[in-house]
Every structure is written in C-alpha cells, then in structure tokens.
Amino acid sequence: MNVIIFKTSVQDKDDLDCLRPALNAFLGEKNWTFDLEDVDKILRVVSPVICTIAVEQLLLEKGFLCIEMPYSLDEFNT
Predict the structure, then answer these.
(1) What's the domain range around 49?
(2) CA dihedral in degrees (29, 35, 37, 41; nearest 10)?
(3) What is the pTM of this model?
(4) The three-state (H, E, C) secondary structure of the chain, written as one string
(5) How many CB atoms lie within 10 A of CB 41?
(6) What CATH number does the domain containing 13 carry?
(7) Would you say residue 49 lies in a domain?
(8) 64-74 pLDDT, tens per residue?
C-alpha cells in the first residue's frame, strides 16, 4: 500500500462535506482522512497504486489546492 500525504486548502467541515462524495467514489470511504487541525490541512490517502496526480486534480476541480508533501520513513529509523 502507498501512503500519500497532501497539503490542502480545505478549511472546515463544510469544505470536507463538499469533497466527501468524490473522495469516497474515487478512493473508497476508509482510504482517506483529513487533519483539519494541522496548519497544512493534511489529506492522507492510502492506495494500492500511486494516485497523486488524480487526487490533486480531483481537489482542484472542486476548487481546492492540493500539493503532495514529500516525506521519508527513514527519519524514524534510529
């Protein structure tokens, strides 16, 4: 499974309610989460395939910015 982290311009529950049907249809109900309390309004996607461009495009079509945030699990290895 791939875990992809995005910084978004989604601000609140109303924005999330607007996106929920499209995200559920594209990714499946349990394959994405938002952290609206994070300053970057994080969208976390779990997918068997890399779908970065499609997710960014989906949010853009709904009027929201969405940018993949690079990360590495290596930083947790000590």
Answers:
(1) 2-72
(2) -110
(3) 0.89
(4) CEEEEEEECCCCHHHHHHHHHHHHHHHCCCCEEEECCCCCCEEEEEECCCCHHHHHHHHHHCCCCEEECCCCHHHHCC
(5) 21
(6) 3.30.70.100
(7) yes
(8) 999 999 876 66
